[in-house]
């Protein structure tokens, strides 16, 4: 597996995939239309960020490739790929509690801060896809 060549794309199942952690220099793509919203992705080896209509959605340090990203009012699900362990920050509902699943294992509950951000650490081995699911309680 590797990063997304187009930086962001729509998948056949209706989800989106984005990010290219192998890039040495920052690349970005703006105004990607998906389900009536405009997305912007910035990505390279050090960081991957996704915004929807100018609002924060996803960030990883170091950079990642995200496959089959699906977001609803009840949470998000996706598969993350990278060559190093990553810290993920997700933009969710403010002051809400979520159940977190990493690699199909329930790792507990977390509450977002006043800005709606949730911070997770994910162990990612090179070229492996790690499923992440965050469900609102």
What does this protein look like?
The chain has 137 residues and is an all-beta fold. It has one domain (8-136): Sandwich (Chondroitinase Ac, Chain A, domain 3), CATH 2.60.220. The chain is built from no helices and 13 strands. It has strands spanning 8-10, 16-18, 27-34, 37-43, 48-52, 55-61, 65-72, 75-81, 86-91, 97-102, 105-111, 117-122, 130-136. The strands form two sheets. Strands 1-2-7-8-13-10-11 form a seven-stranded antiparallel beta sheet, with no helix packed on it. A six-stranded antiparallel beta sheet has the order 3-4-5-6-9-12, with no helix packed on it. The model has no long low-confidence stretch (mean pLDDT 94).
Annotate the secondary structure layout.
Elements (H helix, E strand, L loop, with lengths): L7 E3 L5 E3 L8 E8 L2 E7 L4 E5 L2 E7 L3 E8 L2 E7 L4 E6 L5 E6 L2 E7 L5 E6 L7 E7 L1
Antiparallel strand pairs: 1-2, 2-7, 3-4, 4-5, 5-6, 6-9, 7-8, 8-13, 9-12, 10-11, 10-13
The strand order across the widest sheet is 1-2-7-8-13-10-11
**Name given to the CATH architecture:** Sandwich
Strand portion: over 45%
Order of helices and strands: EEEEEEEEEEEEE
The separation of the N and C termini measures 33 Å
Radius of gyration: 14 Å
Q: What is the CATH C-level name? A: Mainly Beta
| Mean pLDDT level | 94
Tally of contiguous helical segments:
0
> How would a textbook summarize the main sheet?
7 strands, antiparallel
Shape: globular
Count of strand segments: 13
